[in-house]
Specification:
single chain, two-stranded antiparallel ribbon, 3 helices, 2 strands, globular
Length: about 80
């Protein structure tokens, strides 16, 4: 199931990912126990997101990145 996301957050992350997933994550793993994707986010993404949305929890960023990864995999099939 896709996480609930803020479209402004998603648009921002997509706008800075010019080279695809490499711009937003260093690695991607699957946590089979929790049935979710675990992404090691690029430090530059975290910094830019925190500056743009200082009032927002970084959990929101995790949700957006998870949504982007799942959506891209679904569209690739």
């Amino acid at each position: 199931m896709l996480p609930q996301i803020n479209e402004n957050h998603a648009d921002f992350v997509l706008s800075i990912s010019k080279n695809g997933l490499d711009d937003i994550v260093r690695s991607i793993d699957v946590d089979e126990k929790k049935d979710c994707i675990v992404a090691d986010l690029q430090p530059s993404l975290i910094e830019k997101f925190a500056k743009k949305f200082p009032e927002t929890s970084l959990n929101e960023l995790d949700n957006v990145v998870q949504w982007i990864i799942i959506k891209s995999k679904l569209l690739a099939k």
